[in-house]
Design goal:
Blueprint: E1 2-4, E2 12-16, E3 27-30, H1 33-41, H2 48-65, H3 68-79, H4 86-136, E4 144-148, H5 163-172, E5 176-182, H6 189-201, E6 205-208, H7 213-218, E7 224-227, E8 231-233, E9 238-241, H8 244-254, E10 258-261, E11 267-268, H9 285-288, E12 289-290, E13 293-294, E14 307-310, E15 317-319, E16 324-325
Parallel strand pairs: 4-5, 4-7, 5-6, 7-10, 8-11, 10-15
Antiparallel strand pairs: 1-2, 2-3, 8-9, 9-14, 12-13, 15-16
Helix pairs in contact: 2-3, 2-4, 3-4, 4-5
Length: 343
Amino acid sequence: MDWSQGDDAPGVIRMIDQTRLPSETVLLDIGTVDDLIGAIQRLSVRGAPALGVAGALGVVIAAQQFETEKAIAAAADIRSSRPTAVNLSVGVDRALAAFRTGGLQAALTAALQLRDEDIAACLAMAERGADLVRSLVGGRPRPMTMMTICNTGGLAAVEHGTALGVIERLHLDGDLASAIACETRPLLQGARLTTWELDRMGAPHELIIDSAAAMILAGGGVDAVLVGADRIAANGDTANKIGTFSLAVAARYAGVPFIVVAPETTVDPATASGADIEIEDRGPDEVGGFGGVRTAPPGTHARNPAFDVTPAALITAIVTDRRTIRPELGERPETPLDQDRSR
């Protein structure tokens, strides 16, 4: 995802339409607020860091499209288009503050700065996370096998990604035996997107159905579980794609490190615990069928929470671009950076 602008034309957000992967790679040029909100809600763009950058650039789109007061109102609509990932609101708020004081150009500068910071954060998380994995499983022979869920690569950020960025770093360093990707029901982000990214980076990988993860973990074939986060509460609880909590429970039973990788911007000190995180329900259609084909009988009721919350007690470590937090040692994200022992 990036910003594209000709000499005389308004700028557009250029992004891959993730709903079309892996069968085809389609680029979208988003030039209106309605188009951006639609892209966010149908998951053409998704992933906490990517949503933050999209939200910031969305303020620029609103400033191009509307007069000041209407642009501010449109920015609020972008901010509320998906409720769980905190990065979306962080990105909107940052660019909107710049717009209020300096106008359109200031908003664009703030949004592009956030983009660049996201790229740098992903590189920092990759290094920090790979070092942590090596230290946690140092007594086992290399190369190592990682398990992950959903998609946390460059598609979910701008470049490299969070948890998948750590896997990429291990692969480039020759320390990866295999990445096991959970298919990630109901929209198969793991099967469609994570395997696509792993293939492009040349990393060895396998795909499993979500319900096979616990058996594989218990069988001793996985060295660590790496996942992302859409919001990290002050007490260390984390919200991520539905199925993450189950992985954490299975990893604890199997004695496998469970590591959350997310930028510092995903930490939300205003959210005390996971109980305070709003969990988006995407409605029954995604559960009752897939790809336009109905699999459940008409009229079947379904729940479709897009996220779940993993308690801090089940998390071995939270890796951000600025620090490593060890909940099992009593460390919490709410601890100020200058007091955190794991900087």
